[in-house]
């Protein structure tokens, strides 16, 4: 059984492995193998696909809002320039810099991108934890400045979850944008062969366009809002980053 991935992704895993001080252990290939097959197994049994915000959107998030942390990611679909990321499988992901589950504890203050799985339970839990984090740091002043740019479907299929999420967001929501035909990277863009097929995906199965409206939400405590205000120009740059034109190879 082989683990296949693009050279660029392998090189990035090797870099992360070395950054974590693991290079001298001589187990890079075994750890890459375990990581790749763990997520391939998830893909087969879950029957869906992970997704990631495209490079142009991340570039705008970094330049406009100092976003270098991802709340929901993996060693295989993280932005190559993220400093910190949280992921599902700490036992295999920790060798490549994962900080573990986003839910394990309150993340430290800072500026985050959050793109949770698009099922009702995951989205509700993500919003609950984000709001708890913002509330915990609200009294710390500038030291507690925290911001999340949250990516969610505009409408939930489960109306009860929709009402719960809307109620939670009311306190911390500073700005929102709705996008149509938003472009995403497939979470399995590390594969050298096409990932998936269908009208939503490009020829390589690397990118897909959402058929449903997507909302971008800026959730911030008071200090986070002062430090990273979602003004019109910076928000527009992030929204444009989800367009097909901005992500042409």
UniProtKB/TrEMBL annotation:
InterPro entries: PCIF1-like, PCIF1_WW. Transmembrane segments: none annotated. Residues 18-161 form the PCIF1 WW domain. It holds the Pfam family PCIF1_WW. PANTHER family: MRNA (2'-O-METHYLADENOSINE-N(6)-)-METHYLTRANSFERASE, PHOSPHORYLATED CTD INTERACTING FACTOR 1. This is mRNA (2'-O-methyladenosine-N(6)-)-methyltransferase. It comes from Aureococcus anophagefferens (Harmful bloom alga). The gene is PCIF1.
């Amino acid at each position: 059984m082989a683990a296949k991935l693009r050279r660029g992704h392998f090189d990035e895993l090797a870099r992360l492995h070395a950054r974590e001080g693991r290079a001298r252990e001589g187990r890079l290939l075994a750890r890459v193998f375990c990581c790749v097959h763990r997520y391939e197994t998830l893909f087969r049994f879950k029957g869906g696909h992970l997704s990631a915000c495209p490079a142009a959107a991340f570039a705008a998030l970094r330049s406009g809002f100092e976003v270098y942390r991802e709340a929901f990611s993996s060693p295989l679909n993280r932005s190559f320039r993220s400093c910190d990321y949280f992921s599902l499988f700490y036992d295999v992901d920790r060798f490549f810099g994962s900080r573990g589950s986003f839910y394990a504890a309150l993340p430290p203050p800072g500026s985050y991108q959050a793109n949770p799985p698009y099922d009702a339970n995951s989205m509700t839990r993500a919003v609950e934890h984000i709001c708890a984090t913002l509330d915990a740091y609200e009294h710390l002043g500038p030291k507690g400045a925290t911001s999340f740019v949250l990516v969610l479907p505009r409408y939930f299929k489960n109306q009860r979850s929709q009402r719960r999420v809307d109620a939670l967001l009311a306190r911390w929501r500073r700005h929102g944008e709705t996008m149509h035909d938003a472009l995403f990277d497939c979470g399995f863009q590390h594969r050298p062969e096409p990932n998936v097929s269908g009208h939503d995906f490009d020829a390589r199965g690397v990118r897909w366009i959402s058929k449903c409206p997507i909302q971008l939400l800026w959730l911030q405590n008071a200090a986070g809002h002062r430090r990273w205000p979602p003004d019109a120009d910076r928000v527009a740059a992030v929204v444009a980053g989800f367009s097909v034109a901005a992500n042409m190879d």
